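Incident log, support desk, overnight shift.

02:14 A customer reports that sequence design results differ from what the structure should imply. Their input is reproduced verbatim below. On-call engineer (initials T.W.) acknowledged and began investigating.
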């Protein structure tokens, strides 16, 4: 027989030190959890890798005209900065405001899926790292070469328009010269390492976009704003400024090639490929 005291004993579910059995999630709750969860790193990797495969398979004509369009579009970063600069006084904080114009061209390029050289340094490298063959290496070199030349042609056309047409006021051109002059006066090593930082930021932007969804606008703005505010170097956006200086007699062609183009190109490739792509691949290579 049970003792009288046993009848008054608390059931396990009534005891404060015993947690009730957790219930199973409903199907709707499971869907909500899945929707609110960030994609795992292997998922992001696969999205970016497939994007790279698509880009390497595109026809030369499509790559060329998309690259030229990107070169023209990126020039609006330069123009937007100049517009802001022409309305601001000379002060220490002016750079932080002027840099807000820098993301304009990148928004136009990225959201319209135009071909930008520094953006594809990551997307095109991942498929090659996953399947290292001579065919894939050739496809990578082909993509890089076409897009880079097309981007430079586009930025040169934009610089010609800004210099030799009456589209811009004298005040605006003066502001553009002031901004463009900031790419000069640096050592070769300084230019290279500033370009490494820029290449890494652009590659980070590419990696963040698949999980950003509705926040893609903000990701592009934040990453590219840091490039301008930090004084980092971007081969395509910076080439508009370099060509503008050359066409206005403030920079020689040999100096543009040796002091800007070569070190910045090397730095962007290192930042976007050797650093970020290797890190991105390394963190998922055991899961794919």
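02:41 Re-run completed on a clean worker. Output:
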């Amino acid at each position: 027989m049970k003792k009288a005291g046993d009848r008054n004993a608390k059931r396990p579910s009534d005891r404060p030190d015993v947690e009730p059995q957790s219930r199973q999630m409903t199907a709707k709750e499971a869907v909500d959890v899945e929707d609110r969860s960030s994609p795992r790193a292997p998922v992001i990797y696969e999205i970016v890798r497939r994007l790279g495969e698509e880009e390497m398979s595109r026809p030369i004509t499509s790559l060329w005209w998309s690259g030229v369009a990107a070169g023209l579009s990126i020039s609006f970063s330069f123009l937007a900065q100049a517009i802001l600069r022409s309305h601001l006084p000379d002060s220490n904080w002016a750079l932080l405001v002027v840099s807000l114009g820098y993301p304009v061209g990148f928004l136009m390029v990225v959201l319209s899926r135009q071909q930008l050289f520094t953006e594809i340094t990551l997307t095109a490298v991942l498929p090659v790292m996953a399947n290292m063959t001579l065919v894939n290496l050739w496809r990578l070199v082909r993509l890089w070469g076409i897009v880079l030349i097309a981007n430079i042609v586009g930025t040169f056309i934009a610089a010609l328009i800004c210099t030799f047409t009456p589209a811009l006021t004298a005040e605006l051109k003066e502001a553009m010269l002031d901004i463009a002059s900031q790419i000069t006066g640096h050592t070769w090593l300084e230019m290279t390492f500033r370009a490494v930082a820029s290449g890494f930021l652009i590659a980070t932007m590419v990696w963040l976009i698949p999980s950003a969804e509705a926040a893609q606008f903000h990701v592009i703005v934040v990453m590219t704003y840091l490039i301008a505010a930090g004084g980092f170097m971007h081969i395509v956006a910076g080439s508009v400024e370099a060509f503008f200086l050359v066409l206005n007699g403030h920079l020689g062609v040999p100096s543009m090639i040796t002091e800007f183009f070569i070190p910045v190109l090397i730095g962007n490739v290192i930042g976007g490929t050797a650093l970020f792509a290797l890190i991105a691949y390394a963190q998922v290579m055991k899961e794919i």
